[in-house]
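User: We ran a pulldown and think these components assemble together. Before we commit to crystallization trials, I'd like a predicted model of the whole complex to look at. Sequences follow.
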Amino acid sequence: MSVTSHDVAQLAGVSQPTVSRALRDDPRVSKATRERVRKAADRLGYVPSDAGRALSSGRTRRIGLLLTDLENQFYPHIIAPAFHQLESHGYQLMLHTEVADNDVVAERLISNGLDGVLLATSTIDSVVPLRLRDRRLPFVYFNRTSDAVSADSAVVDPTQGMREAAEALSKHGHRRIAAILGPANTSTAVNREIALREALAQQGMSIPARYIHRGPFDTATGHAGTEHFLTMPQPPTAIVCGNDVVAFGALNAARSAGVGVPDDLSIIGFDDLPSASWPIIQLTTIAYDLDAMVRRAADLLIDRIQSPGRPLEESAFPSHLIERDTLGTVP
Amino acid sequence: MSVTSHDVAQLAGVSQPTVSRALRDDPRVSKATRERVRKAADRLGYVPSDAGRALSSGRTRRIGLLLTDLENQFYPHIIAPAFHQLESHGYQLMLHTEVADNDVVAERLISNGLDGVLLATSTIDSVVPLRLRDRRLPFVYFNRTSDAVSADSAVVDPTQGMREAAEALSKHGHRRIAAILGPANTSTAVNREIALREALAQQGMSIPARYIHRGPFDTATGHAGTEHFLTMPQPPTAIVCGNDVVAFGALNAARSAGVGVPDDLSIIGFDDLPSASWPIIQLTTIAYDLDAMVRRAADLLIDRIQSPGRPLEESAFPSHLIERDTLGTVP
DNA sequence: CTCGTTATTGCATACGTATGCCTATACTAG
DNA sequence: CTAGTATAGGCATACGTATGCAATAACGAG
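Assistant: Here's a predicted model for the assembly, 662 residues in total across the polymer chains.
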């Protein structure tokens, strides 16, 4: 049906292995033959089969990216740089998402014959890292980590950003501060909460339990949490959100409720997504170099694939506050 | 290294082909053996290799999705439903993006051994459809089409939406109407322009050349176009945008310039992305059922794979205007 | 008791590429 | 002139699964 390296070999008058070598610029084939093979391949429109390659070489030059869900506005900002960074190293990206059964995910990752996996999703209790380790399938934690299995990682260090946020909140006179946090079984949610509490403590403040709302990192969570806070007899004057997407939900809830931002309510995000700096949004948020973080994760993974024995590398990216229009002074 | 069907066969005391059949519920293997094989497979943690399967069966159960770029805010809304619809049919999704050389893209699609391709990107002059046709690789046009090669397609019919937009604009007293359109080599941009011009003509209006701005379907285009219009001695009172992402750019430009929307300027989008209906945005836009369109495209493709001979199916999804807060009355 | 059937399983092989090893040729050094 | 050494290419085979066909066993009918 389709044209194979054997067809090319026949046309060029060489053996199939020579075709394989010629087209991959193996030094063992002479310049003349290489040219002849190339010409034949072009003429037949030969395209090597990844499946054949994978089976024979044991490598696919494909890398999996595991996300919780694709709907989330945060993920495109991971997918794009990951795709390009991997592409520049000659790797292709395969998307995967969590499904109900954790083991099914692991099976898919394995059956795909991936050379490595970027885990951008792992909850603390996921079995995926275990399964991957058992298979000796290289992987890197991105954004989140899991204590169960150690691996290279690229994450944000929220301490500096949260410290600056706490200082700014204090300086603007905020005392009643709420937080809308991510799921308790994600390292990101936990780390940000810890950093936030410590930073507030240094300012002599704290968050009471009633000012805490938890949920997935999406707009619905931000919306629901903010709505809830606004019905309180003494609503908070500021809300620190688990990430920008949550903060967008908070902004929407405030607008719907007719509550002015930042006059009546201040909102702080985390991630500094491109849309956070849009003139119509101008979200005050904690920023870090997301693109660089993605690229680092990709590089770590490729490096790990090529030298499985090298020591673990855990890189944390610093964060800082970017003040825009959603943080105001308490009257 | 990894466990294969041979290992399972040995443990279960059967031949390798029997393992293959047993695990795929082939009726030719007895219930007893099937159970024995399953047990052995579980015990060894056997996971079949996609590469082996692909090579042997000629099918990969993988489908490619070709996009122009991953940065664009529009694409996540395609990727997610496509991913899930394909998954529900037992197919996996592979992302691909256009790169400088058109032929390189086609080669990748081919070498991947995909069972089919969703073309969400094809410019009118792309060679990709030609290459795919030559390889007998099934594909479906999504959103855009190309005249060079006919294939199943799922697209928006903008006529009704544009008609309603023109009526609404007219009713609100707009006479100076501008448009920020997509690239001239995309069918979407062309179709929307035609529909818009016809609809305006029915209202006795038209768009002068100086009120036309063209560029990629991104926020930068919307921003630049709007900035440009606003510097004119007689700026338009309304801008119809090629899609919502462009409209977001327009909103930003207006805000930056201190121009009120909709008091000084009305803006209309196209797509009705989830964020268009956010309280803090409230974009007036032309809507259609994007999710259904994606699912249709996926279904068409799978159907085409299974019955290559069936007649062509071109489905157009109707559109309509959704009035929100960015369309106002001219003073 | 024999023959035709059906139900199960195994055998052989194909899929397309990569790679270790051997061979043949040409070339260099002594 | 010979032995040693690159250099270039071919041969054989492996990778893991699926599948057409043959083989065996079990079984019932006559």
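Chain A has three domains: 5-48, 62-155+290-318, 157-288. That may be worth checking against your pulldown data before setting up trials.

User: Thanks, that helps.
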